[in-house]
């Protein structure tokens, strides 16, 4: 199940609490982002053993910017990021966000 993040504080608590999780930066107005969200949602439904979160870029710009700066990942939207042990271990954007890519990212970053 996807859980929405809205603030830097929520994200920081998540990084401290979860050893591994996915995050999707999602645009509410972009059709490519909508397609990526559907792929991400499918992954989340099929792999409930790993936490999956998202943020809406238009609603959570400070959080989106904080993640880009803190983890040195150029901001893109849509953008999926795998966090592991407090670090960003994988990321993909736009059409590269697929159910298969998420499965492979997790397998390759055990």
Automatic annotation (TrEMBL):
A Pfam family annotated for this UniProt entry: BrxC
Recorded superkingdom: Bacteria
InterPro entries in the cross-refs: BrxC, Thioredoxin-like_sf
Name of the protein this chain belongs to: Bacillithiol system redox-active protein YtxJ
């Amino acid at each position: 199940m996807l859980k929405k993040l809205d603030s830097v504080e929520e994200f920081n608590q998540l990084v401290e609490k979860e050893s591994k999780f996915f995050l999707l930066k999602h645009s509410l107005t972009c059709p490519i982002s909508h397609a990526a969200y559907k792929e991400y949602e499918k992954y989340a439904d099929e792999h409930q053993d790993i936490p999956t979160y998202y943020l809406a870029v238009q609603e959570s710009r400070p959080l989106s910017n904080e993640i880009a700066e803190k983890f040195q990942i150029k901001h893109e939207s849509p953008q999926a990021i795998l966090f592991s042990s407090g670090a960003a271990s994988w990321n993909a954007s736009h059409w590269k966000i697929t159910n298969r890519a998420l499965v492979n990212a997790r397998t390759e970053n055990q």
